[in-house]
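[09:14] KT: can someone run the structure on this one? pasting the chain below
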Amino acid sequence: TAIVVNVPPARTAVVAKTDRVDITQRVDTGNVQLSVDPAIVGPNTVSVRYTDGTGQPINVANSMSVEFSQPSAGLEPITRQVPASEPGVFVIQGNELSIPGTWTITIAVRTGDFTEQRTSFEVPVRR
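[09:31] RB: done, structure tokens below
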């Protein structure tokens, strides 16, 4: 058993951890955090979380839209509607990040009858 205990973890476990991208921006309602995991070409999980100044979730909307684009490659926005999975939390899984490079991910939530809050993130995606 000593040999099993001293064996380092598989490389794929380490790579998956280091490829995740987390970006937080300040917005009118508090903070918005975008996480892209694993931030490589192919299937990814994109999570968006709205929080107040103390880190508590804020219920900003029941749904939001997410746009994925890569203007430098001539890719126009791919838009997805995403329901809240819990107050202030939105999760989308998909293959939208189909080529490497810097992607612009824009999230939009309706904060009033005639107002929309849009926040854009620049996310590096590797092969």
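[09:33] KT: thanks! Helices lie at 2-5, 11-18.
[09:34] RB: yep, looked fine to me
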